[in-house]
Design goal:
By secondary structure, the protein is an alpha/beta fold. Helices cover about 30% and strands about 15% of the residues. The N terminus is likely disordered.
Amino acid sequence: MSETLASRAAVAPLTSPLTIRMHADDNVAIVANDGGLPPGTALPGGPVLRDKVPQGHKVALVDLPEGAPVLRYGVPIGYALQPIPAGSWVHERLLKMPEARGLDDLPMATRGAAPMAPLEGFTFEGYRNADGSVGTRNILAITQTVQCVAGVTDFAVQRIKAELLPKYPNVDDVVALEHGYGCGVAIDAPDAVIPIRTLRHISQNPNFGGEVMVVSLGCEKLQPERLLPPGSIPISDTRGDGDAEGLDVVCLQDEAHVGFMSMVESILRQAEQHLKRLNARRRETVPASELVVGVQCGGSDAFSGVTANPAVGFCTDLLVRAGASVMFSETTEVRDGIAQLTARATTPEVAQAMVREMAWYDDYLKRGSVDRSANTTPGNKKGGLSNIVEKAMGSIVKSGSAPIGNVLSPGEKLRAKGLTYAATPASDFICGTLQLAAGMNLHVFTTGRGTPYGLAAVPVIKVATRSDLARRWHDLMDINAGTIADGQASIEDVGWELFRFMLDVASGRQKTWAERWKLHNQLVLFNPAPVT
């Protein structure tokens, strides 16, 4: 960790009362002090607290009669279920959640934002691939067609790391693309295209250098040729004889395999051919426009929309100005901000594509007989988020202010620069999996409650929303955006800090904490297809 980041993580807790109001029209503010504030505390320029208000939770700045809108971010996040006197703790049990905004009569590509000034001269050291993409890491990935082979592949990967990887110092890692799909599903169902194309596109991630190796069981529904049909990947010369012999598959049910160790040795033998080619690669200077960044939040709290997400949003604008590709996601969270998003679309067609994804989610909830209020977790509420409307307002600010020029459906591959809405659920691991499939080579993840989330395929930069979290999880958080709430830094300061840190991480000059600890979670596929 750099000196700057370490010093920011050590900011002393606030002692004088501090509240944060997001918009001039807001009639509530959140308490910023660690541990909250006790009853009887006089807020500067505001009321005296009638209740103890925990950190991140809302306090009424004025008397709110029953039925009055409770405003945060300048929008109603709920309506008072009873009179709420000024100085009271405003929590979810006192609020009626607003109805979801309809998907008709939305502002479609109405903002007309002026083009952003180009940001030039920023570069990183990356791995240029044959297809023109650029990796931030040089990793051998072993694709699996079905969960049944996961144990064998994992055993082989441990041996590869112990016995082969030390011989190839220019290769960063070996990862098995483990998942729970491949058999026991309606493989020909219309929606089966989503998990299949997700796995296919993950195998093509820029950080894997075009080296595709597959481990198959043999009897599964998702056969290797269906997962990776001819033409979907560059064919490797795995024998080194100048001939392209087709997809490199180790099939465990092949009659040539006699016993478990025979299977493992086959995987090691094929892996070494890929390692040799990856090891010959070298980093080269490339423009910042080659970054493909996915932004996401998890374990959110009321500070997410105050500190970390606005800083990420500022950084998103910097990346777009530099010509890079940025994806923001989480349909299940941003649904309540749809009017803001469609207004920012570059064309009515892009706006309509976002509406299409939100409509799918609405139908999904209806079919499951649940409503959108289920999105907020116990941790979100403990961190001060009363409902999904409040959570949505803080979530969408990760996208910055750039026009939204593209929409990706789940599992699709990104082929556009600028800002893209990549439709994913809010579940951390499904969102990360789908952004991997889209082609991201760097990931930014904000958190307020804290989570050890990580991905094996790309560096994950963790941004803490609060200084208390950054202090306690000092060896898990890479950036402390809590300095914004503490008054030690501005949103712009932290945004620039994140941008420069990203270039260092992308170049291999810095490793994230998740990389240092080798923290990563299993890939989780979005699978609407029924089981059989």
